[in-house]
Amino acid sequence: MNPGNLEAHWGRALALARLREWSKALLDLEEALRLSPGDHRLKALRGVARLETGDPEGALADLEGALREGEDPLLLAFAARAHLELGRPLEAEALASRALQKDPKQVLSRFIRGFIYLAEGRTSEVIEEIRTIVALH
Questions:
Q1: Torsion (CA) 48, 50, 55, 60 in degrees, nearest 10
Q2: The pTM is what?
Q3: In contact, 124 and 114? CB cutoff 8 Å
Q4: Are the CB atoms for 112 and 84 separated by under 8 Å?
Q5: Nearest to 94 by CA among 74, 80, 78
Q6: How does the average pLDDT of the chain come out, rounded?
Q7: Rounded Cα distance, 51 and 40, in Å
Q8: Rounded Cα gap, residues 83 and 24, in angstroms
Q9: From the centroid of its chain, how far is CA 100?
Q10: CA-to-CA distance for 55 and 24, rounded, in angstroms?
Q11: What sign results for the dihedral spanned by CA atoms 119, 124, 125, 126?
């Protein structure tokens, strides 16, 4: 692969992400971002890869950068997950709720809210999220 080919790095990173080879995908994403530092799609995928490799703080920085380009419900859900992993349930719940305002069928956001509600003992809200998730499938 040509080391200066942005689309080649992007394509390989996507393929590796689909295989859940997050550490390998990160290598291509780093190189792609070196070539195109402002590309929000690269930041978004690197944010997910960082989250999947145990770096929620780095993930959040990337996801927030990508979200400045527009509030994609899935990116909001991943940002919510990063906040949850960092022990910030209030921020996680707020982001998950924003994601659901944009896409009520966003399952990851419903799961995150259900997890938060469970930890807080909000049983009826947990049941409601589970019912909604089941109805969506």
A1: -50
A2: 0.90
A3: no
A4: yes
A5: 80
A6: 94
A7: 16
A8: 24
A9: 14
A10: 15
A11: positive
**Token pair in block for residue 15:** 């393929």
CA proximity to 129, closest of 116, 80, 89, 120? 116
In sign, the C-alpha dihedral spanning 46, 51, 52, 53 is positive
What whole-number distance in Å separates Cα of residue 137 and Cα of residue 64? 29
**Are 10 and 22 within 8 A, CB to CB?**
no
Residue in this structure with the two tokens 């690269």, named with its chain if needed: 42
CA 60, CA 56: separation in Å to the nearest integer? Answer: 6
Residue 30 has pLDDT above 90, yes or no: yes
Structure-token match 């291509």, residue found: 28
pLDDT band at 1 (very low <50, low <70, confident <90, very high): low
Q: Where would I find the H helices in 68-122?
A: 73-85, 89-102, 107-119
Give the whole-angstrom CA distance, residue 29 versus residue 24: 9
Q: How big is the chain, counted in residues?
A: 137
Beta strands in the chain (DSSP E): none
